[in-house]
C-alpha cells in the first residue's frame, strides 16, 4: 500500500497507513517528552485529587511537579500494604484511585514470599493496548513482509484467584489475554498468530501448549516469527516438542486430536483445523528423532526471520541456548513492561541483545529517576529524583513511577542506564533488578530469601550435629527447565553420625518450601523450574574461593562470600570440590491461594 508522504516518519518508511500513524504518535510523544510528562502528572493528580492517599499529603488540588515532589514521599510496595489489603478485603472507597480498582495484577516481584498485588483500573487496558499497537509498526521498519505469514507465539493464561473482597488477582498477561481488547482484536495482517484464542485461553498448561505447538507445526511454512514473552518460555516450548513430538506427529498423521486434549472449546476449534497430513507427520518425526537438535527452529519453521522474546536482564542467560536451537536467528526484544505499568518499547528491535535499549513512552505514566549509587556509597541527604527528560547519558537510575491506577512515586526496583535519546526521550539499557540473586523463569529470589531457605533447611542437620558453614548459589540454565544449585560447605562434628543422602535430599525440599510463591508456582504448576540441587563441597573450598578473589584484587578486609556465582573459573573451582550432589525429592507446597 502506498503511504502518503505527509505520513512518512523519521524512524523510517512505514509499511502501511496504520503504521504511519503509530510512528507519528511515537515521534510526537518523544519530541515532547517533558510537556507530555507534565500533562500526564496533572491528569493523574486531577483525576485522583479526592483520593484518600493523596489527601493525606495536603496537595490541596495542586497538580504541578514542584508541589508533588515536595509533598509526596517515595515509597516501596511494603509502604502501601495497608491500603492494598483494605482494597483486597473489599473496601470500595477511593483509597488510591478515583476510578474503581478493577482487579489486582499479581507481580512476579514478591513481598514476604507472596506475589505483590498491583492495583489496576479499566482504563489501563487501553494504555497497554496502545503500547502493543506500536510494536509491529516499528518491527515492520526492519523486517519487511511480515504480513505474508504468521507468528508462532506461545502465550498462556495462568491461574487466577479472587481476593476476600472479590477482586481478581492474576498476572497482567492473563488479564490482557482474557480481555475483549485481545479476544476480539480486529484482523491485522501483520499480527496473525498460528495459535487460536481457544488454545491461548485454555487454563490447562499442557493442553494449551500441546495445541499451540500442534497449530505451529500444521502451519510451519507460514510461520515468519517464533516467540514467547520471555526466553525461558520459548525454551520450555522447545523442550515440550522434544518430549511430545511423537504424539503430535500421530495427530498430524491421523487428523485426530490426542485424547488428552479434553477442553471442549479447544477440541471444537481443532476439529476445524486438524486434517490428516501424513507427509508433514513424517517430516516432523524425521527432524525430531534426530539426535542433534541444533537449529531445530529453522529446520521445522524454515521461514522464521527472528525470535521474538525478551532476552534482556535475567533472561540474558538463555541467549546461548536460544542461539543453539535457532541456529543464531536474530533475537528481538520489543518491549519493557511490568504489572505496575507498561513502560516502553525498543525502537531498534533487531539490535543485538547486549545493545538493546528501551524508549520509555512519556504518555504511559509519570516517570522519575532515582540516581543509583554504586554499592557501598550512601547518600546523607534525601536524593533528588530526576525527571524523564532530564536524565543524563551514561548514568544509572532506579525507576520510580506514578500511575493512573494509584501508585504514587513508587519504586519499581529496576536499575536502568541511559544509553541515548530518541528526540528528547531517553533510551535505557535494562541493567538489572535490584536485589535479585537467582532467577530461572519469572521467579526472583533475593539474598534474604535464599538465606532464610538455607537456615530452614539446615534445621534438618541439627540432629546430626552438622551445620552449614558457607554457601553460595548458581542458576543452572544448561538444562531445560533450569534449576537452582546451592553449594554447601558443611561442618560435621560427628563423622560417625553424618547426615545421609536422604536427609540432604530433604534439605533441598526444605529450601524449596521456603522460597517465594513465584518459585514454587514455577516448580509445581508451570514446570518451568527443575528440582533444587545441593552440592556439598569439601571443607576449605570457600577459603579457596576467598584466596582466588583476593588473587584477583579483592580486599581481604572487605571480602564477602558471594551468595551467587556465575563466573566460570569460580564455578569450575566449586564443581571440582564437590563431594556429593542431592536433589529435591518432591514438589514444594503451592496453591494459587495466598498463604497470607
Ligand atoms: P512483573 O511485575 O512480573 O510484571 O515483572 C516486571 C519486571 O520484569 C520488570 O520490572 C523488570 O524487572 C522485568 N522486565 C520486564 N520487561 C523486561 C525487559 N524487556 N527486559 C528486562 N527485564 C524486563
Please provide the count of β strands: 20
Global shape: globular
Low-pLDDT sequence parts: none
User: Strand count, sense and closure of the main sheet?
Assistant: 8 strands, antiparallel
Bin the strand percentage: 15-25%
Structural class: alpha+beta
Keywords: Ligase
Family: Belongs to the IAA-amido conjugating enzyme family.
Domain GH3 C-terminal: 449-568
Domain GH3 middle: 358-433
Strand and helix map with partners:
Elements: H1 17-31, H2 33-47, H3 52-55, H4 65-71, H5 77-88, E1 103-111, E2 114-120, H6 123-142, E3 150-154, E4 161-162, E5 168-170, H7 172-177, H8 180-183, H9 197-200, H10 205-218, E6 223-230, H11 231-254, H12 264-273, H13 278-288, H14 296-300, E7 306-310, H15 319-326, E8 331-332, E9 335-337, E10 342-345, E11 358-360, E12 366-371, E13 386-387, E14 396-402, E15 410-422, E16 425-433, H16 447-458, E17 466-476, E18 483-492, H17 501-514, H18 517-524, E19 533-537, H19 541-551, H20 568-576, E20 578-583
Parallel strand pairs: 1-5, 3-6, 6-7, 7-8, 18-19
Antiparallel strand pairs: 1-2, 4-5, 9-10, 10-11, 11-16, 12-13, 12-14, 14-15, 15-16, 17-18, 19-20
Amino acid at each position: 500500500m502506498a503511504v502518503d508522504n505527509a505520513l512518512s516518519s523519521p524512524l523510517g518508511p512505514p509499511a502501511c497507513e496504520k503504521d504511519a500513524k503509530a510512528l507519528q504518535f511515537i515521534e510526537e510523544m518523544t519530541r515532547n517528552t517533558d510537556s507530555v510528562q507534565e500533562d500526564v502528572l496533572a491528569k493523574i493528580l486531577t483525576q485522583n485529587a479526592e483520593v484518600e492517599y493523596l489527601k493525606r499529603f495536603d496537595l490541596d488540588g495542586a497538580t504541578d511537579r514542584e508541589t508533588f515532589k515536595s509533598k509526596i514521599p517515595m515509597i516501596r510496595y511494603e509502604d502501601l500494604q495497608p491500603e492494598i489489603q483494605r482494597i483486597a478485603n473489599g473496601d470500595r472507597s477511593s483509597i488510591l484511585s478515583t476510578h474503581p480498582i478493577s482487579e489486582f495484577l499479581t507481580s512476579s516481584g514478591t513481598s514476604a514470599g507472596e506475589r505483590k498485588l498491583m492495583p489496576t483500573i479499566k482504563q489501563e487496558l487501553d494504555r497497554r493496548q496502545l503500547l502493543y499497537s506500536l510494536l509491529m509498526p516499528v518491527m515492520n521498519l526492519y523486517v519487511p513482509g511480515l504480513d505474508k505469514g504468521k507468528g508462532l507465539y506461545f502465550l498462556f493464561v495462568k491461574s487466577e484467584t479472587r481476593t476476600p473482597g472479590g477482586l481478581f488477582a492474576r498476572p497482567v498477561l492473563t488479564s490482557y489475554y482474557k480481555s475483549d481488547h485481545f479476544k476480539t482484536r480486529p484482523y491485522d495482517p501483520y499480527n496473525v498468530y498460528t495459535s487460536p484464542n481457544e488454545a491461548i485461553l485454555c487454563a490447562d498448561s499442557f493442553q494449551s501448549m500441546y495445541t499451540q505447538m500442534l497449530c505451529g507445526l500444521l502451519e510451519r511454512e507460514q510461520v515468519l516469527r517464533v516467540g514467547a514473552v520471555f526466553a525461558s518460555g520459548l525454551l520450555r516450548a522447545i523442550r515440550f516438542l522434544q518430549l511430545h513430538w511423537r504424539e503430535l506427529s500421530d495427530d498430524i498423521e491421523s487428523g485426530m486430536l490426542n485424547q488428552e486434549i479434553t477442553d471442549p472449546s479447544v477440541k471444537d476449534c481443532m476439529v476445524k483445523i486438524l486434517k490428516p497430513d501424513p507427509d508433514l507427520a513424517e517430516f516432523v518425526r524425521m527432524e525430531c528423532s534426530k539426535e542433534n537438535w541444533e537449529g531445530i527452529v529453522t529446520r521445522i519453521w524454515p521461514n522464521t526471520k527472528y525470535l521474538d522474546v525478551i532476552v534482556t536482564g535475567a533472561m540474558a542467560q538463555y541467549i546461548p541456548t536460544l542461539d543453539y536451537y535457532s541456529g543464531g536467528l536474530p533475537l528481538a526484544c520489543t518491549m519493557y513492561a511490568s504489572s505496575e505499568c507498561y513502560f516502553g518499547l525498543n525502537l531498534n528491535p533487531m539490535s543485538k541483545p547486549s545493545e538493546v535499549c528501551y524508549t520509555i513512552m512519556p504518555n504511559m505514566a509519570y516517570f522519575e529517576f532515582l540516581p543509583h549509587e554504586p554499592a557501598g556509597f550512601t547518600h546523607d541527604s534525601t536524593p533528588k529524583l530526576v525527571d524523564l527528560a532530564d536524565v543524563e547519558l551514561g548514568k544509572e537510575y532506579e525507576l520510580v513511577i506514578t500511575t493512573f491506577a494509584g501508585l504514587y512515586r513508587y519504586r519499581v526496583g529496576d536499575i536502568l542506564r541511559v544509553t541515548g535519546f530518541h528526540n528528547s526521550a531517553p533510551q535505557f539499557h535494562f541493567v538489572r533488578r535490584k536485589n535479585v540473586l537467582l532467577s530461572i523463569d519469572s521467579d526472583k529470589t533475593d539474598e534474604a530469601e535464599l538465606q532464610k531457605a538455607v537456615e530452614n533447611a539446615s534445621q534438618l542437620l541439627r540432629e546430626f550435629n552438622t551445620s552449614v558453614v558457607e554457601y553460595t548459589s548458581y542458576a543452572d540454565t544448561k538444562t531445560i527447565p533450569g534449576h537452582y544449585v546451592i553449594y554447601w560447605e558443611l561442618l560435621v562434628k560427628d563423622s560417625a553420625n553424618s547426615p545421609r543422602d536422604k536427609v540432604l535430599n530433604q534439605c533441598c525440599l526444605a529450601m524449596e518450601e521456603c522460597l517465594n510463591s513465584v518459585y514454587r508456582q514455577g516448580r509445581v504448576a508451570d514446570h518451568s523450574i527443575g528440582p533444587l540441587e545441593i552440592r556439598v563441597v569439601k571443607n576449605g573450598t570457600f577459603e579457596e574461593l576467598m584466596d582466588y578473589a583476593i588473587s584477583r584484587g579483592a580486599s581481604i578486609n572487605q571480602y564477602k562470600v558471594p551468595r551467587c556465582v556465575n563466573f566460570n573459573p569460580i564455578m569450575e573451582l566449586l564443581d571440582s570440590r564437590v563431594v556429593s550432589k542431592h536433589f529435591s525429592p518432591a514438589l514444594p507446597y503451592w496453591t494459587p491461594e495466598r498463604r497470607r
